Amino acid sequence: MTEGKVERKVIVISGGANNIGKGVALKFLNNGWQVGIIDHDKRALDNFPQKESGNAFLYVGDVSDEYAVAEFYIELKERFGRLDAIVNNAAIGQFKNFLDLSVGEWKRAIDVNLTGYFLMARFGVPLMLENPGRGAIVNISSTRALMSEPGNEAYSASKAGILGLTHALANSLGPSVRVNAICPGWILHENEQVTEQDHKQHLTGRAGVVEDIANLIEFLIDDEKSGFITGQYFVVDGGMTKKMIYI
Ligand SMILES: NC(=O)c1ccc[n+]([C@@H]2O[C@H](COP(=O)([O-])OP(=O)(O)OC[C@H]3O[C@@H](n4cnc5c(N)ncnc54)[C@H](O)[C@@H]3O)[C@@H](O)[C@H]2O)c1
Questions:
Q1: Ligand 1 atom 28: the closest Cα is on which residue?
Q2: In-domain check, residue 3
Q3: φ, ψ for residue 41 (rounded to 5)?
Q4: Within a 10 A sphere around the Cβ of 121, how many other Cβ atoms?
Q5: Residue 113 C-alpha to ligand 1 middle, in angstroms?
Q6: How far is the CA of 20 from the centre of ligand 1 (A)?
């Protein structure tokens, strides 16, 4: 803390330009955090609601590009000087008939969804360890890490890989950095309309909203509330993975 100035905590969110990542970014900005976002969607970043607030650092880049990720953290450090939390969220869906899936498409899903998470941790953790010396990482996986539909191979494999990466990092980085994962089920996008039947199939009677994920992220990066939790994954899916379906 410099004299007369309270240093705000800093969180980084990959894929923070849209939907879940955007909702998480806005929650933390509204709670007084400084937020760094890396996302390749320039148009969405140009329209980001709190772009001019001074507490948001918006960087256009691809998380699978190690040079972009390294540059993002160099600029983040110049701007905010510290890093308290990383939310790995940027991902692409990859649903395609297995026998039509090209090697290039497979590799792209793994590059973005898994290598991207590795890169965000690899280049971000040194700053976290430097200032404030400890922190937390939350990796957004999916219930598709645990169960599948046909044509899910690349996405499911990448999301299951994230769970392995999570417990490996928890071992490598503890006790300074806690690392956990969230497996969301169906989380509604901005303005997404679904049927009553879509809602009612969930044991909770409704599909998920961004707040369901943002609230858990807030808990998992708060040392006072979750300081004894690391290496774990948490399923947030309205009970769908506990519902037996044979049709
Ligand atoms: N919405 C759901 O129902 C749901 C369910 C399970 C898991 N998830 C997971 O939650 C996370 C967010 O999902 P969402 O629904 O908000 O997705 P989304 O597609 O709306 O948002 C993903 C964001 O990541 C960015 N992105 C994609 N590839 C990138 C790259 N190579 N470099 C930088 N940015 C990139 C996109 O531009 C976008 O802003 C993802 O990891 C997704 O797999 C979502």
A1: 91
A2: no
A3: -90, 90
A4: 22
A5: 9
A6: 7
Q: Is 155 a catalytic residue?
A: yes
Is residue 5 domain-resident? no
Q: For residue 98, is it within any domain? A: yes
Q: What's the CA-to-centroid distance between 138 and ligand 1, angstroms? A: 14
Measured distance CA(35)–CA(24) in Å, rounded: 10
Measured CA to CA, the distance from residue 56 to residue 33 in angstroms comes to 9
Tokens of 35: 């937020």
* Domain that includes residue 105, residue range: 10-239
**Closest-lying ligand 1 atom to the alpha carbon of residue 18:** 39
Distance between CA atoms of 62 and 39, rounded to whole angstroms?
6
Reading the block at residue 140, the tokens are 């957004």
Verify whether ligand 1 is closer than 6 Å to residue 94 (CB atom).
Answer: no
| Pocket-testing residue among 12, 65, 187, ligand 1, by greatest number of atoms within 8 A of Cβ | 187
Predicted pLDDT at 1: 45
* pLDDT exceeds 50 at position 181: yes
Read off the pLDDT of residues 114-163 as tens digits, 9 standing for 90 and up.
999 999 999 999 999 999 999 999 999 999 999 999 999 999 999 999 99
Ligand 1 atom 34: residue of nearest CA: 39
Single pTM value for the model? 0.97
Taking only the tens place, the pLDDT of each residue in 17-53 is 999 999 999 999 999 999 999 999 999 999 999 888 8
CATH number of the domain enclosing 210: 3.40.50.720
Give me the half-sphere count of Cα atoms (radius 13 Å) on the Cβ side of residue 169.
28
Token pair of 192 as six digits: 């997404």
